[in-house]
């Protein structure tokens, strides 16, 4: 089972990189236009779906397929104001901050550099 999961994750990462790479190539070579935007949406939606499947298989607490929504819900529902004990509050806050930081960097790059810069980012972040 562990070997199967490891192989799945390696394949998932490679396929996701290929999808994001294809989106980057499309953005760089073709430019803007309705068909290009739809193509980018399709490629990136496939990559995100694969990422969700991998996160679901990994099954780490507080990191589900709807990571941000459930993390924020957990912060609120489990808070001391709601009568909870705030379990794993620091991990949830760190995950939420990381997601917001990533969104801010992505938005800045899209607005000031272009979509191709954002699509090139994942390949630069991997070891």
Describe the structure.
Helix content is 79%, strand content 0%. It is mainly α. Helix 4 (89-112) crosses helix 5. The longest helix has 29 residues, at 2-30. The radius of gyration is 17 Å and the shape is globular. The chain starts with a helix and ends with a helix.
Radius of gyration: 17 Å
Mean pLDDT across every amino acid position: 79
Indicate the low-confidence ranges by residue numbers.
Answer: none
Query: Percent of residues in beta strands?
Result: under 5%
Helix content: over 70%
Give the oligomeric state. single chain
Number of helices: 5
What shape does the CA trace take?
A: globular
| Helix vs. strand class | mainly alpha
What is the terminal-to-terminal distance? 26 Å
| Biggest β-sheet description | none
The sequence of SSEs as H and E is: HHHHH
Number of strands: 0
List the helices and strands and how they pair.
Blueprint: H1 2-30, H2 34-58, H3 67-77, H4 89-112, H5 115-125
Entry keywords:
79% helix, 127 residues, mainly alpha, globular
Short description:
By secondary structure, this protein is mainly α. The protein has five helices and no strands. α1 runs antiparallel to α5 (about 115-125) and α3 packs across α4.
